[in-house]
């Protein structure tokens, strides 16, 4: 069943919604998580380290 879902997502271009943040915003992102103020997954831009 899981593989079928992955195949469906790939075939239909179903992508996760993300919010890219710079490394200097990690603490802000963590506070937002604690405050339930997150709409998308956070992705850290590793080029900003």
What does this protein structure show overall?
It is a single chain. This protein is α+β, with helices and mostly antiparallel strands. The chain has a domain at 16-49. Helices cover 39% and strands 20% of the residues. It has two helices and two strands; from the N terminus they run αβαβ. The chain has helices at residues 2-11, 26-34, and strands at residues 18-22, 41-45. A two-stranded parallel sheet has the order 1-2. α2 links the parallel β1 (18-22) and β2. It is elongated, with a radius of gyration of 15 Å. The termini are far apart. The mean pLDDT is 95. Keywords: Metal-binding, Oxidoreductase, Zinc. GO terms for molecular function: metal ion binding; oxidoreductase activity, acting on the CH-OH group of donors, NAD or NADP as acceptor.
Q: How is the secondary structure organized here?
A:
Blueprint: H1 2-11, E1 18-22, H2 26-34, E2 41-45
Task: Please sum up the structure shown.
Keywords: Metal-binding, Oxidoreductase, Zinc. 39% of the residues lie in helices and 20% in strands.
Estimate percent helicity. Answer: 25-40%
Which structural class should the secondary elements be placed in? Answer: alpha+beta
Low-confidence stretches: none
The helix/strand order is: HEHE
Evaluate the radius of gyration: 15 Å
Strand order of the largest sheet: 1-2
Give the termini distance in whole angstroms: 38 Å
Count every beta strand, where a strand is a DSSP E run of 2 or more residues. 2
Counting H and I runs of at least 4 residues, what is the number of helices?
2
User: What is the approximate shape?
Assistant: elongated
Let me know the average pLDDT.
95
């Amino acid at each position: 069943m899981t593989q079928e879902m992955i195949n469906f997502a790939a075939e239909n271009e179903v992508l996760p919604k993300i919010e890219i943040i710079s490394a200097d915003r990690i603490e802000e992102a963590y506070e937002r998580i604690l405050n339930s103020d997150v709409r998308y997954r956070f992705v850290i831009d590793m080029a900003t380290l």
